[in-house]
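Schema walkthrough. Field components (list of strings):
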Amino acid sequence: MTRKNPKTFEEQLKRLDEIVETLDSTEIPLDKQLLQFEEGMELVSSLREFLNNAEQKVVEITRRSRSNIEEN
Amino acid sequence: MEKIVTVSELSSAISSLLAEGIGFVLVQGEISNFKSHSSGHKYFTLKDEHAQISCTVWRSRRMNFLPEDGMKVIVTGELTVYPPQGKYQIECSSIKQVGQGELYLAFEMLKKKLEAKGMFETARKRAIPELPLTIGISTSPTGAAIQDMLSTINRRMPVCTIYFRPTLVQGEGSAEDIAQAIDDLNSYSPDVIIIGRGGGSIEDLWSYNTEIVANAIVCSKIPVISAVGHEIDFTIADFAADMRAATPTAAAELVTKITQIDIYSHLEFSEDEMLRNIRDTIESNRDFILNLEKSYAFRQITDKVRVFIQQTDEYQNKAEKKIAALIKLQKTKIQSAEAHLSSLHPLNPLRKGFAYLSHNGEMIYNNISLLDYDKIKIHRAYETASAEITDVDNRKKNL
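Field assembly_structure (string):
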């Protein structure tokens, strides 16, 4: 299981939901549950940090061109 | 030409020229930019492909239908001048509907054509991602639409990155530019694309009623939301797009269905849920252990231990008894051995009347003849006597 660091924000959210669901079912042994709990808490804090540091970024792109000017 | 007139004088001269020279007219054209003012007066533009004329309908005029943009009508009225703006207009006395406007017909024909091609099929529509973090936008850089969208997205989901492609939204070359914009935005691979503009007349929105735009939407690899005009305006782009939004602001809301606040509260919920679960687990594990301690099975173990202890005690008792018995047995054995031993004492026969002889304190054994002695001692059980050897009868040797 090397799923510890899902790349995108959405994947991280999905992984978090998975963990919450698994913990809810309590079918797994305590030590594994603790591992999942730890991973889940790490996800919560990294997702929160991502949102906290976010600022709207507007990239203006021009016709038939990949060069861009960053604004805002 | 030498005579100098005022603007008002000239305007009034034009007015009488128009009234006398043209006067009442019957004009056929298409209604555009229809506006019903709060005063009750109505204003619109009557047009064909090459020209347009302003029209007014005073409140007092009754109309047997509600004029709409794109309607083909025959207007009856008087050509007048409106001096404050220096423009001429038809003051309508009646408006007759000729049938649906040509633009509307063209729209209907294109719609049918593309429909037949399957371009509006629900099956080919892509789902709009629930949580798009990169959003492509094609709209005019000057209209209110872009500001509305940026501020709406920034308010709801500031974490989003916007790829904005300033686009010609009306006039010549606008349809091509919109199609190109969709293509350009595709190369940035945003999660979703919004093409849009604010409301306007059917002519203003016309670029969004073209096949080239519809094709670009259908060919886009990224889901496209069409947000053209205000609520009532439907365009070909709306039908071809993966989703239609009534206004640009509504489109911005659609792509931020999940807001940052929603995510924050979801994170909080997840955190609480995990904490609650882990606490519950620990608690229930503790209860389990406590219950186990109290359980019959666990008590049985201590009971068993007790039985073992008791049994051990019993075994010990038994063993001790056995050992004691053994010791006793050994003791009696020793006693009888003692008795036997004492019975074997060499002086024991003396008690039965036997005697032994000695000379100078040494016992005289059978292998020595008494001939060798003159005086000896005779030992009996309770007395000792001295004796003198006078005669030895050597009758039997080695008795």
